[in-house]
Design a protein that fits this description.
7-stranded parallel beta sheet, globular, 235 residues, alpha/beta, two-stranded parallel ribbon, 9 strands
Length: 235
């Protein structure tokens, strides 16, 4: 099978969706088939040489109209040129002009834009509003990373119910067996994620503050790169 992938999550410093994409590709490329990675700009990760793997990229600047053009128009053109059988997007949006003979799969991580739009940057909110609904409607299969996400997709897009499949995420094996760089106690509460408004960290800290006098509650460890929104966690 010839499979095309929206590889834009690998064209920027890796966050959650980038790590998800990279880990799955490492496993799936090794399993066989032919893989075509599409991006609007060069990838920022090194990929192992593999005769079954090809990378196509443009020269757009991430987050610009040019980036959207590459994803919506050029991806559809490349998919025809590469005679792909399947297109997978790990990041909510499909190229809506994709040839109808090409099967499509989209991964939905969350529907934050429907419930908490105020926690998103205006540009990202606009893209989700414009592209997620049509992508879900056209996809042959919709991967949901949790039962909650599947319930949200079913709530807002009831026609997608029969096409949804819950596939849980898991820790990379190397990460799962690694030892923390900090000197931590045997038990602790761990948050991992980009530090930005939609992660709701102020509420996590307020909740933890109500329990801090309980000796049975382990310490809280927060791990994540700086995002947007001015989250002042030390304060």
């Amino acid at each position: 099978m010839r499979i095309a992938v929206d590889a834009r999550p690998l064209a920027a410093p890796l966050t959650g969706i980038g790590r998800y994409t990279r880990a799955l590709l490492d496993a799936m490329v090794a399993s066989g088939h032919q893989w075509f990675l599409y991006s609007d700009r060069p990838l920022q990760v090194s990929l192992p040489e593999n005769p079954r793997l090809w990378v196509r990229h443009g020269d757009a600047v991430g987050g610009t109209p040019g980036s959207l053009r590459w994803a919506q128009w050029q991806y559809a053109r490349w998919a025809v040129q590469d005679v792909v059988d399947l297109f997978w997007s790990p990041r909510h949006h499909l190229p809506l002009r994709l040839n109808k003979r090409i099967a499509s799969v989209v991964t939905i991580h969350d529907l934050v834009w429907r419930q908490f739009p105020e926690t998103m940057r205006p540009k990202n909110l606009w893209l989700e509003r414009a592209l997620m609904g049509p992508s879900i409607r056209m996809a042959d299969r919709v991967i949901c990373v949790s039962r909650f996400t599947a319930s949200e997709v079913s709530r807002y897009y009831p026609n997608a119910v029969g096409r949804c499949q819950v596939i849980h995420e898991a820790a990379d094996e190397d990460i799962a067996v690694s030892r923390p760089a900090m000197d931590l106690p045997p038990e602790y509460l761990l948050f991992v994620g980009t530090l930005e408004p939609r992660k709701n960290l102020p509420r996590l800290l307020r909740a933890y503050a109500r329990l801090r006098d309980d000796a049975a509650i382990p310490p809280l460890v927060i791990v994540g790169g700086g995002g947007w929104g001015g989250e002042d966690l030390p304060a």
